[in-house]
Amino acid sequence: MKQPLAFVLALALSTTPASAQEGDESGSMMQRGLELFFEGLRDEVSPALRDLQDMVAEYGPGMRRFLSEMGPALAGILEEVEDWSRYEAPEILPNGDIIIRRKPDEVPEPEALPPAGPTDI
């Protein structure tokens, strides 16, 4: 996630005008150093961006279709569930049904229970 952000930052900074004068050697060295830095950054980020584009091209249409069909039902579930950590990962049954099981409630440890009082026999 950081790599696309870095690429956008690099692209934005590389298109801004240089503040150094043409005749100022230290300014032009700094400008050239920044250019090399951002070129390297762009080269590092390019494969990740290509992978992201490929993934969007592959999964995008299916995700759009899924969200258009299931979106309203999922929104209703999201409103009802307060704590997703109380549920197991979804499970696909052999018949194609998808279930999400609630995790068992934690049972208090025996020493956490209040002591038993005397009993009449």
Structure overview:
The protein has two helices and two strands. It is mainly alpha-helical and 121 residues long. Strands 1-2 form a two-stranded antiparallel sheet. A hairpin with a 5-residue loop joins strand 1 (91-92) and strand 2. It starts with a helix and ends in a 22-residue tail after the last strand. Residues 1-20 form the signal peptide.
Q: What keywords describe this structure?
A:
121 residues; mainly alpha; two-stranded antiparallel ribbon; 2 helices; 57% helix
Helix content: 55-70%
Widest β-sheet, arrangement of strands:
1-2
Largest sheet: 2 strands, antiparallel
Task: Give me the count of strands.
Answer: 2
Brief rundown of the structure:
The protein is mainly alpha-helical and 121 residues long.
Annotate the secondary structure layout.
Layout: H1 2-14, H2 25-80, E1 91-92, E2 98-99
Antiparallel strand pairs: 1-2
Helix pairs in contact: 1-2
